[in-house]
Amino acid sequence: MIVKLTHATVYVLDQDRAKAFYTDKLGFEVRDDARMGDFRWLTVGPKTQPDVRIILMPVKGPATSPEATAALRAAVESGALGGGVLECEDIRSTYEDLRARGVEFPSPPKEMPYGLAAVFKDDSGNYFSLSEVERRKQG
Amino acid sequence: MPIEHAIALSRSNLRRAVRARDLIHASYQSALTLDGMAREAGLSRYFFLRLFSAVYGATPHDYLTGVRVDIAKRALAAGASVTETCLDVGFSSLGSFSSLFARRTGLSPRDWQKRVLCTIPVPGIVQSAFVPACFLRFHGLGNFGEAQPGSPALPGVSTRRPR
Distance (Å) from the C-alpha of residue B35 to the closest C-alpha of chain A? Predict the structure, then answer.
């Protein structure tokens, strides 16, 4: 039985730029940053969720054909690839905070059937949903 | 009732938990105590214990042990001796370190090191031991034991030996 997702891939156009975006703007931490020849293993994650890594994978890899690289680059740049869903504890303040840091939000927070959600883009063009975590008030 | 169900994960509580976790990562080599971590987070000992467990799914002590073991693995994979690694990650007793390491990994530090040094996917590049094989393969660095055209065959068993 599979019990957990531990790594997810986000294709990025420039690893240095992506690293700065995910750490300086989103507030993530760097989990790995190791170079192995032309390959750079770069992962980040939110500080409150240490058991998951987002791999900031370059669209161009040493073993990727020029055609595949071009197709991947075009898909990322056009916003065709969804990055995923991120949760925050207060979407309105997080939205304002991220916008102040220069994060682009094509869609501001709004009520959706599943809760409050907004959409932002990373520095490469990947779209992410930002949603508000359901508050626990049992305590 | 599980302790994590009794905590409201407000922004200020999350920040306090993160601050304590940052302390663990920055000071894992020191003798961190629950009281010291709670003080750093600005919380009472009991509330801090409940909050940290709610956010990270582990007690501060278990989390600290996990960090130490993870860092120990990297040191052992790089060829450090077991004693050196034990002291570097904040243990003063080799017996406690070995026993905790074995409990977490199923192998003694020495056996774990032997096994890892024999299976590093990219010869000479220790970091590759910590990169999932599918990503190494994507970058032409690993072959899951298969031959790849144009790539040197990767050894199933390396000639490297621990110090």
Answer: 21
Integer Cα distance of A50 and B20 in angstroms: 13
Cα(first)–Cα(last) distance of chain A, in Å? 33
Cα B54 to chain centroid distance, Å, stands at 20
Q: Looking at residue B143, what is its pLDDT?
A: 58
Reported as a single tens digit per residue, the pLDDT across A70-98 is 999 999 999 888 889 999 989 999 999 99
Neighbours of A102 (CB within 10 A): 10
For range B142-160, the mean pLDDT: 43
Measure CB to CB from residue B139 to each of A7, A32, A63 and give the nearest one.
A63
DSSP 8-state symbol, A25: I
Give me the pLDDT at residue B158, please. 38
Residue count of chain B: 163
pLDDT band, residue B107 (cuts 50/70/90): very high
pLDDT, mean of residues A2-23: 96
* Residue B24 CB burial class (10 angstroms; 0-12, 13-18, ≥19): buried
User: Average per-residue pLDDT in chain A?
Assistant: 91
Minimum-distance CB partner of B56 among A50, A57, A61: A50
Measured CA to CA, the distance from residue B131 to residue A63 in angstroms comes to: 16
How far apart are the CA of B93 and the nearest CA of chain A, in angstroms? 27
Dist. CA A98–CA A86, nearest whole Å: 13
Residue B41 CB coordination number (10 Å) = 22
Say how far apart CA A36 and CA B18 lie, in whole Å. 31
Nearest to B162 by CA among B114, B107, B92: B114
